[in-house]
Amino acid sequence: MKQIYELHAEICKTLANPKRIEIINTLRDKEMSVSELLAKIKLKKANLSQHLSLMRAKGIVKTRRDGTSIYYRIANPKVVKACDIMREVLLGQLSESNKTINKLERMKP
After folding, report:
1. Does the keyword 4Fe-4S apply (predicted)?
2. How far does CA 4 lie from the centroid of its chain?
3. 50-95 pLDDT, tens per residue?
4. Which domains does the chain have, with CATH numbers?
5. Torsion over CA of 75, 80, 86 and 89, rounded to 10 degrees?
């Protein structure tokens, strides 16, 4: 059972990077070539390639070669769903924090 937790943590660690989350969001609806991703995500090509390589190794993205171009896509749509759920959790936390701040501001003398 411990092994499943370690594997789970590895996936979470891979997702725990703002640029990788941006890559997932960019690829959520369609596959894209590296050049298309570079146009949408402000990264150097070497950095993007490193992120994509790690994401591919962890099974988050898959590739397809067409001539000299490599196209990336999300390997499993549940990855996008997981990111969406975490975004909802974040927005809920921010909403609660704002409510608390508003209450505290109303209490000021």
Report:
1. no
2. 21
3. 999 999 999 999 999 999 999 999 999 999 999 999 999 988 888 8
4. 2-106 (1.10.10.10)
5. -160
Contacts of 83 (CB under 8 A, 6+ apart): 15, 21, 24, 25
Q: What whole-number distance in Å separates Cα of residue 50 and Cα of residue 29?
A: 22
Alpha-carbon distance 44 to 51, whole Å?
11
The answer to whether the CB of 14 falls within 8 A of the CB of 50 is no
Edge to edge, what strands does the sheet with 61-66 contain? 32-33, 69-74, 61-66
Q: Which tokens sit at 7?
A: 């594997």
Q: What is the pTM of this model?
A: 0.85
Question: Residue 76 — left, alpha, or beta (φ > 0 → left; ψ -120 to 50 → alpha)?
Answer: beta
